[in-house]
Q: What sequence folds into this?
């Protein structure tokens, strides 16, 4: 029974993260990533350079990317929550 | 709920659009792509060997390896806004490097990089070798060297970990700047001038984030020490 509660907890926190990330992504957008700035610097010092490969998946909507980033965070958070709860259980069982 | 989880959640609520730090797909000439892949592969091999050793000695280290990996996943998805209107992200490499040894992270860290390169259009497959080298090799070795050096100076443990994570993050962006500066040097754009240009792109953004990375790593380390002290001491006897 307890297992179910953990899964629910992980799922719920993941969902909250996703939702809030999407909300933020819709309302902000004023920050440029340093990798984009680096690309700009490359174009400045080597104007003739053409990138010779493209990302396999490119999204034209910001929220897809944000959701996937949140999914990545949720995966990591899930593992760590699982670890915390498992060990907490062990401690209280003793 | 654990207070730490709440802190973590609060920070997770802050990400914004924009990525950071890694070299974008296609933005490294082919010869350098090859060079950095070749430089990275021996460490990957060492890492596999190291992980096999850890897991065969103590099966519970699998859980801790997963935690180290999860930590990298969370931190490298945290795109934080920083000064001067730019954003970048953390890496989380130091924690695993201190616990399991630097080469272990060459394997664990690259999982997060692959995930981002394949699904998130962040970083890239052609630049994977270079990004893996800067993040999982340089980042991990700097972390462990800093930690060991600070141990010799008898600095408090949490300060050691903070310094290790901080310097690891700083050195990762320095390596990225260096990789770009070397690859794009020409007569009109000498290496050193490029280096200054690329470093100034990353430095302002990355320094405050490196401080945050330091605090996160200390937090995660304390958590692991509380629950798995015995296992950690089996893996690495130097931990008190």
A:
């Amino acid at each position: 029974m307890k297992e179910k509660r953990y899964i629910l907890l992980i799922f719920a926190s993941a969902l909250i993260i996703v939702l809030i990330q999407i909300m933020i992504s819709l309302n902000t957008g004023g920050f440029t990533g340093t990798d984009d700035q680096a690309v700009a610097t490359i174009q400045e010092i080597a104007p003739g350079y053409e990138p010779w490969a493209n990302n396999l998946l490119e999204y034209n909507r910001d929220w897809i990317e944000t959701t996937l980033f949140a999914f990545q965070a949720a995966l990591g958070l899930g593992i760590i929550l699982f670890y915390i709860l498992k060990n907490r259980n062990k401690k209280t069982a003793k | 709920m654990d207070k730490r989880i709440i802190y973590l959640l609060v920070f997770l609520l802050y990400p914004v659009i924009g990525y950071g730090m890694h070299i974008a797909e296609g933005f490294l000439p082919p010869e350098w792509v090859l060079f950095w892949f070749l430089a990275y592969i021996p460490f990957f091999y060492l890492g596999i060997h190291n992980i096999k050793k850890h897991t065969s000695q103590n099966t519970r280290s699998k859980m801790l390896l997963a935690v180290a990996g999860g930590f990298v996943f969370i931190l490298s998805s945290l795109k934080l806004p920083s000064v001067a209107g730019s954003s970048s992200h953390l890496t989380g490499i130091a924690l695993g490097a201190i616990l399991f040894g630097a080469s272990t992270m060459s394997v664990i860290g690259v999982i997060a990089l692959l995930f981002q390169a394949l699904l998130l259009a962040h970083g890239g497959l052609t630049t994977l070798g270079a990004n893996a080298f800067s993040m999982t090799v340089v980042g991990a070795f700097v972390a462990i060297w800093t930690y060991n050096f600070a141990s010799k100076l008898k600095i408090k443990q949490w300060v050691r970990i903070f310094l290790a994570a901080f310097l690891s993050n700083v050195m990762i962006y320095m390596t990225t700047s260096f990789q770009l500066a070397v690859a794009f040097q020409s007569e009109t754009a000498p290496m050193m001038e490029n280096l200054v240009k690329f470093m100034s792109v990353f430095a302002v953004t990355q320094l405050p984030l490196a401080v945050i990375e330091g605090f996160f790593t200390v937090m995660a380390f304390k958590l692991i020490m509380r629950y798995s002290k015995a296992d950690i001491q089996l893996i690495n006897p130097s931990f008190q």
User: Anything to note?
Assistant: Chain A has a mean pLDDT of 71. Chain A touches chain B through 55 residues (CB under 8 Å). Strands of chain A lie at 32-33. The longest strand of chain A covers residues 32-33.
